[in-house]
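User: Teach me something about this protein's shape.
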Amino acid sequence: MELHGAHGYLIAQFLSPATNKREDKYKDGVVFLEEILKEIRRRVSIPVGLRISATEFDPNGLNPEMVAKIEELNRF
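Assistant: First, the predicted structure itself:
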């Protein structure tokens, strides 16, 4: 199973500082992603992959350094 969180899909919109202008707990889009993954893993017993964009080619969007920090968190 693979979640698609790239190319402007909902997960990408939460992860991107260019589109996520929220002021609640989901301001950190990783919180949104973490909740999704926890619930999926609670319900299935198969590997779950995640596709995200490493860069949005937007000065205000995701870039490789941000994606590396997301991976370093290892909260999933």
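Now, about its shape. Residues 36 and 42 are 10 Å apart (CA to CA). The first strand starts at residue 2 and ends at 5. If you'd like, I can walk through any region in more detail.
User: That's plenty for now, thanks!
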